[in-house]
Amino acid sequence: MEATLRIAESNELTDEQQQIVNYLMERLGMTQEEAQDTIFSTELEEAPEPVKKFHITDANSANWLLKRIAETNAEISTVHKMLDDEVDRLRRRTETILQPLQRKLDFFTNNFAAELEAWTKKELEGKRERSKKLLYGKVGIKTGSVSTELLTSEDEIISIIECLPVYDPFAEEDYYPGRELYELNEKLQGAIKVSKSILKSPLKSALEDGWDGTLGVNGQKVSIARVKKSDDSFYFETELPK
Questions:
Q1: 23-27, 68-72, 224-228: lowest mean pLDDT where?
Q2: Residue 162 has what pLDDT?
């Protein structure tokens, strides 16, 4: 059974309600009466009878639930497959678009990067600046980094360092003919991690202090580390003006 409840009369419109009436008349072509009826009329339906609450009580109800879960999982799988298929399609499409663009980029860099580097080095020669700003990007030379290079295996270096005597401040001075040597040995001991691998920072510190990277082993000098400086490298960055 349906009934209609009149909530308010047309002469009781609020500003907000009047705006809605105007919108319905202008956009949907309603008359003023139809627009007001749309706002103030509410269809009241008889409340439906409450649905009996579902419970699992036998094999049929258990199967009903399992069927609904299986169907829902199947729908979820279908959506995921649709997503995967769409992603694959987009990936293939993207690869098709990118292939000629990558060939174009390779052409420019392979054919002209060396010339650009030579021009950049000439432009920066004798200057403090290491880069040059251009309209469509920047070119420059990155200073090579300084690192410590191991000249033999870590295991061999560990065995050599572990055999070095460490300076004892309480021993007689004549027992240590060269205190600086033992202080160096003590510093090198710090290069051995508990896991028996080499930390390069103590070696680098010793090299910076003037150590030549060699140690005496069985009457012979063994080179274990040295300072290594990488070459300066050319770089360029591109950008479009805003």
A1: 23-27
A2: 75
Nearest-angstrom CA–CA distance, 60 and 179: 91
Q: Which two tokens stand for residue 72?
A: 């829902």
Angle at 238 between CA 107 and CA 240, to 5 degrees: 110
The secondary element (H helix, E strand) that includes residue 112 is helix 59-124
Q: Is the pTM of this model over 0.85?
A: no
Question: 116 lies in a domain?
Answer: yes
Task: Flag whether 67 is in a domain.
Answer: no
Q: Is residue 218 part of a domain?
A: yes
Q: Indicate the DSSP class of residue 12.
A: G
Could you identify the residue written with the tokens 């700003």? 133
Does an H or E element contain 148, and which? strand 146-150
15-19, 57-61, 166-170: segment of lowest average pLDDT: 166-170
User: Is pLDDT of 226 > 60?
Assistant: yes
Residues 205 and 166 in one domain: yes
Query: In 157-192, which positions are buried (b, 16+ CB within 10 angstroms) versus exposed (e)?
Result: bbebbeebeeeeeeeeeeebeeeebbebbebbeebb
Distance CA 138, CA 135 (A): 8
pLDDT tens string 20-54: 777 777 777 778 887 777 766 644 344 456 667 88
Structure tokens given for 51: 């649905």
Closest CA to 237 of 136, 145, 104, 142: 136
Query: How many domains are contained in the chain?
Result: 3
Domain containing residue 30: 2-45
